[in-house]
Amino acid sequence: MTQVDFHFNAPDKWSYVCRLLRKASGQGKKVGVLANVEISDLLNQSLWNLNPSDFVTHCAASDSMEMLQHSSIIFSTDWAVLMGLSQLDVHLNLNDVPPSDFEGVSRLIEVVGPEDRDKTSARQRWKQYTQLGFNINRFDLASVNSATSGQ
Q1: 38, part of any domain
Q2: d(CA 145, CA 137)
Q3: Mean pLDDT, residues 118-131 taken together
């Protein structure tokens, strides 16, 4: 059964995604990231701009087999391509619609920013995942941020 984790209210969505990818990589996880070309390019650049000590190996699914084997983060615009990569531990969906097939996907992460458009599409994805019977975890980053800022 696929576990879906929604991370809501990410104040700076792309910085949060980079931290999430860095954390997963540090835990030895391989993450498949489903995103359009524009978002993939943005994240690629953001990961290159991390502090050198925080470097995260990453590549596009269209890169060489050697690059794929040595990268902990793999970007693709095509879900079927990610599904063909058997070594992935986690999948991250950065599109407005859910992927079409979950066979073999044990964990899927969704990150939702504060924008109304992002929240609206997240509600639709949540509904679809619920209808599929997935176990959904909700992480409200606004409550985490307010709890830590009040200390």
Answers
A1: yes
A2: 18
A3: 96
Domain assignment present for residue 149? The answer is no
Q: What are the tokens at 143?
A: 């409550």
45 to 18, 49, 58, 63: CA distances (angstroms) = 10, 6, 11, 16
Would you call 51 helix, strand, or coil by DSSP?
coil
Rg (CA), the chain: 15
Task: Name residue 130's amino acid.
Answer: T
CA gap 140, 136 in Å, rounded: 13
The CATH code of the domain that includes 87 is 3.40.50.10110
Q: Taking residues 22-42, what's their average pLDDT?
A: 95
Q: Do 112 and 119 contact (CB within 8 A), yes or no?
A: yes
pLDDT exceeds cutoff 60 at 149: no
115 is in which domain, residue-wise?
Answer: 6-143
pLDDT confidence of 144, banded at 50, 70, 90? low
CB 107 within 8 A of CB 5: yes
Please state, in angstroms and rounded to a whole number, the distance separating the CA atoms of residues 105 and 26. 21
The residue-averaged pLDDT of 49-71 equals 92
